[in-house]
Amino acid sequence: MYKFIAVAALVASAAWGTADFAMAAGTPAPSGAYAYIGYPNDGQVVPANKPFRVWFGLRFMGVAPKGVKYPNTGHHHLLIDTDLPPADQEIPSDRNHLHFGAGETETMIQLPPGKHTLQLLMGDYMHVPHQPPVYSKKITVIAR
């Protein structure tokens, strides 16, 4: 009897783990969708320690705030000096992963002197990258 209960518990926990993974897999992305940084341009010099504008572009997909589950939409995340996070997990929220869950399409940021990378990544209503992920080319800016 105890062996049966243990096996049933093991099977149930495996099924739950699979369901959790499936939910974290991300929302389907529309075919051909891509994000891009409209400003600044790759290689551009930006003011160090002063705010400058970054604007986000998106093609073949719409913008919707976090929590809004609507087909072919998502919201922007600006990645600063970091690589793309795992595609099957929620996008972190820290100084290197800025969330724009209200549906913003531009922001003001400030960087210390030096070379920095910027990249956009779209997240679904739960901040998980779409499948396949929708992201921009990584650009480099020089803060002087």
UniProtKB/TrEMBL annotation:
Keywords noted in UniProt: Signal
Pfam families in the cross-refs: DUF4399
Residues in the signal sequence: 1-24
Stretches assigned to the DUF4399 domain: 54-141
Database matches in InterPro entries: DUF4399
Keyword Signal: yes
Name assigned to this protein: ATPase
